[in-house]
User: Which sequence fits this backbone?
């Protein structure tokens, strides 16, 4: 399915979108690149006190009440990912714009393969943490962010988390428009500080959203080579 709504929440409060990868692996076939978007609801209810961090996406649009930092806009799929055509979206070792440049604050303790984060000097961007093949998946509790807002811990490990469903997450309030909000221009985006209040009532962490030409692709977990 080609659609611009990669991850969309309108009128959301206390939302965390951390370490997600959102892209269309057939960008020439779709109407627009998929986005991460947090904006006002169609009933004019504003979004507030949300966080967008450590994401890889083809577009990011957020309002002034959302904190946005350590995100990277995807310009060249082949430069970042191992094998886009075969849905392998692990980072290439040469993807230096996305490796060791993230923030550990509110980041999930593990990546989509259940590899502990970080594997280098800092957390990587996107759903997968790059490593040289020496790291192994861990057993334990479900992957998720450190909900106290601090650095992730290794507590509460459980059985392997399920792989991504490859679909899109959307709560668009009936709005199907393009426009609205602010769009980051590329590189690691500047922080936009919003209103006060605690965050963490709703979180999407380590989600892999791949929009295909005619269907959603289920991307299985793979061990790094």
Assistant:
């Amino acid at each position: 399915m080609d659609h611009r709504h990669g991850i969309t929440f309108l009128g959301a409060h206390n939302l965390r979108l951390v370490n997600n990868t959102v892209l269309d692996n057939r960008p020439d076939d779709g109407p627009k690149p998929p986005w991460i978007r947090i904006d006002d609801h169609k009933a004019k209810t504003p979004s507030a006190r949300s966080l967008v961090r450590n994401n890889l996406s083809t577009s990011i649009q957020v309002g002034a009440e959302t904190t946005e930092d350590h995100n990277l806009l995807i310009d060249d799929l082949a430069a970042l990912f191992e094998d886009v055509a075969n849905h392998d979206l692990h980072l290439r070792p040469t993807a230096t714009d996305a490796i060791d440049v993230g923030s550990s604050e509110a980041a999930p303790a593990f990546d989509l393969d259940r590899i502990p984060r970080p594997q280098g000097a800092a957390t990587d961007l996107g759903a997968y943490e790059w490593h040289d093949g020496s790291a192994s998946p861990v057993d334990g509790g479900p992957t998720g962010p450190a909900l106290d807002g601090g650095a992730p811990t290794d507590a509460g490990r459980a059985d392997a988390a399920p792989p991504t469903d490859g679909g899109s997450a959307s709560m668009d309030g009936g709005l199907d428009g393009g426009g609205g909000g602010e769009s980051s221009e590329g590189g690691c985006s500047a922080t936009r500080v919003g209103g006060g209040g605690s965050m963490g009532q709703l979180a999407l962490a380590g989600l892999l959203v791949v929009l295909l030409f005619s269907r959603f692709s289920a991307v299985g977990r793979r061990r790094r080579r």
User: Anything to note?
Assistant: Residues 1-225 form one domain.
